[in-house]
Amino acid sequence: MKVLKLLEDFPQREALKASELKFLEWLFIIFQLTAFVLIVGLLSSVFSIELIAPILDLVSQNISSPLILIFLAVLHFAVILLLFSLSKPFTFYALLIFVGAMVLFSILKLFFLEPTGYKIAGILIYSFCFLYFMTSRRLKVRFFYKKFLEDATKTIICPGCGQEVHLDFENCASCGKLLSADAKFEILKKQILDIDYPIVVRVGKITLLADTFGKKALPFLKEQYDKQLVSPYRNIDIVAAFLKAIKDN
After folding, report:
1. What is the pTM of this model?
2. Residue 233: which H helix or E strand, with range?
3. Which region among 102-111, 187-196, 197-206 has the lowest average model confidence (pLDDT)?
4. What is d(CA 22, CA 108) in angstroms, rounded to the nearest whole number?
């Protein structure tokens, strides 16, 4: 499962580092900032269109309409704010739509207006950005890690058909089997002990088990905590999660 593989490859501490903006993201931000400054300068008559038209074709769109230019300036500024302030799936999809629209509009301009090297370069740059956003694992970590982790933590396996089910569901969506509280309790315990799950997911499930079942989970938590302490394969994150869950209950 790709989500579990990503969570395994990027434990929380590594995910925090991986989600930091790197060279290509900073270059993309500089492009957006350049476009914003040029458009604002053009609208305020600081720059002439003859001077900056080629650069606008490269970093944004060379449009004569002031209203469209204002709209583009707002878009470029919004993209910068989104990259800095939000690390959510919505941001990722908004960036993809923005970059895809820039590519599409540039291609249309290339066909209907005089083609230039700057226009072609602009298409290539934004096409590269689109492909990079689509394929970069680091960006998926930045924008999707929290959601992936939450979903993986709250996903259990139906004992009837073996399909994934969200913990909050009372019935399996695939086979309709009733998932009682006791059944969910036993499934979570098995998943916590399953070494095929990434450490970060098992830690999340320990916390979830303790929060959901409270004192009912204490005997299991204490037993596994004691086993972890003497195990040659103990993991510090698992031990810490068991200890915190015990203290909180």
Report:
1. 0.78
2. none
3. 102-111
4. 31
